[in-house]
Prior knowledge:
By secondary structure, the protein is of the alpha/beta class. The protein has 2 domains: 5-85, YebC, transcriptional regulation domain (Alpha-Beta Plaits), CATH 3.30.70.980; 89-277, Rossmann fold (3-Layer(aba) Sandwich). Helix content is 29%, strand content 33%. The protein is built from 7 helices and 14 strands. The strands form 3 sheets. A 7-stranded mixed beta sheet has the order 10-9-8-11-12-14-13, sandwiched between helices. Strands 2-3-1-4 form a 4-stranded antiparallel beta sheet, with helices on one face. Helix 6 links the parallel strand 11 and strand 12 (232-244). Helix 6 (218-231) runs parallel beside helix 7. The mean pLDDT is 89.
Amino acid sequence: MSNTIYIGYYFKVQPIQPGVEILIAELGYAGFESFVETDEGVTAYIQKVEWNKSILDDIQILKSGEFNITYTFEDIEQTNWNAEWEKNFNPIVVDNVCAVRAPFHEKFDTEYDIIIEPKMSFGTGHHETTHMMIQHIIKNDFTNKSVLDMGCGTGVLAILAEMKGATAIDAIDYDNWCYLNSLENVERNNCENITVIEGDASVLGKNTYDIIIANINRNILLQDMEIYVSCLNKGGSLFLSGFYNDDIPIIQGLCEKYLLKFQEKLERNNWVSLKFLN
C-alpha cells in the first residue's frame, strides 16, 4: 500500500442536503471508496488505478438543475495519507461520557475512551448519525446483551457496546476497507467479544440478537428491515439511523408493520435516530 495513489475530489454542494447524500450514493456506485463530509459539501477519494477521465459522466446529480455543485481534484500520495487524516480528524466527546479520538490525541477524562484510526472508513463519531447512535448506547443497558452492529464502518459502535457490557457482538460491513479497519480498531481497543464480518444482511442467517444497531441509509434499512426483525429477540431493541426527519413516516410505518413499538427519537441537524422495541 505504500505506493498507492488516491485522487481526492473536493465538492462544494448547494443545497448541501440532500445534495451530499445523493452525491455520495452516486459516487459510491462509480467506484469512489470513501467520503468525508465538510462544511461546504464532501471530499471523495478513489484509487488512481480505478480512475478514468470520464469517471463523473454518469453522476446524474451533477446534471441536475436542483443543485449547484462545483469541484476540484488532485492526486494524493499514500505517504501523505495519515498526515491528511491527522490534520482533519479532531477528537469528539459525546455527552461528557464518551470520547472518540485518534491514537495521536491526548486521553480525555471520560467514562468511555475509544481510540479510532479512521483511515477511509465512515464512523468517527463526527457525523450526526454516529453521534446519535453513541448517545443511544450510552443511555441504554447493554449488560450481557448480544448485539449486531450492521454497517459498522470503523467499528466504533460495536466497541462502545462492549465497553457498556455486551458479551457477544457481531460487527458487519460489506465494504472491505471498513471490515479491515474495524478489525484494527477492535484490536486497538482490546475488545474480546466482537466478531467482525465482511458482508451484508444476507450473512445473518438465523442469528438472533438482543440489540440491533443499524446506521446505514434509508433505502438499505427499508430493504433489509424484514431481516433485522427476524433476527431481533423478543423484547429486544432496534436502533436505526442514517436518514432525515422527512423519512420518519416510511421508516416508522414499516417498523410498525412488523409490530415494533416506537420508543424514542433523537435529532441532530435534521438527521434523526429512532429506537424501537420488539
